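Handoff note, outgoing to incoming analyst
You'll be picking up this chain. Sequence as last confirmed:
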Amino acid sequence: MNAFRSHPRFLCDAMLGSLCRWLRFFGVDCEYAGVEASDAEVGGRAEAEERWLLTADRELAGRGPRTMLVRSVELEDQLVEVLGRLRLDVRADLDLSRCSYCNGLLAEEEREQVADDVPPYVLETAERFKRCGRCHRVFWPGTHGKKILARMERVVDRVNVQPATCNGQL
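Most recent structure output, in case you need it:
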């Protein structure tokens, strides 16, 4: 149990897609159940993959032992709630991110390796590239990165001043 809790993995239900994506920016292993999955399928998947189930559905949250009811409605509040309750040590650092689309791990790529996969202007101007090992999307520092980092910094600042509330329990 300690190894699991030191590196928790999550599954977000259909109500928490944005939260899932942003947890990935923080480098958290977080899968998305999708809208087509039934509550039973979501719960079964979380259990089979040994993931904590994050849900905004009170009924679903009451069904399993590894569930966390996310009460907040706004995205930044949700991030603070989840990261703070679990006391996860996160930083505002996109170098630690996972693929925001599929949760795959990102690896550095050389310019030549991505030449056919990015627009010519990006190939000429971007300083670095990362590719997802699962879906093979290519990422590079762009203008949106500053906005993402700014939100991440706000969340980290809020998590760091939040009092501990879970006493080891979810």
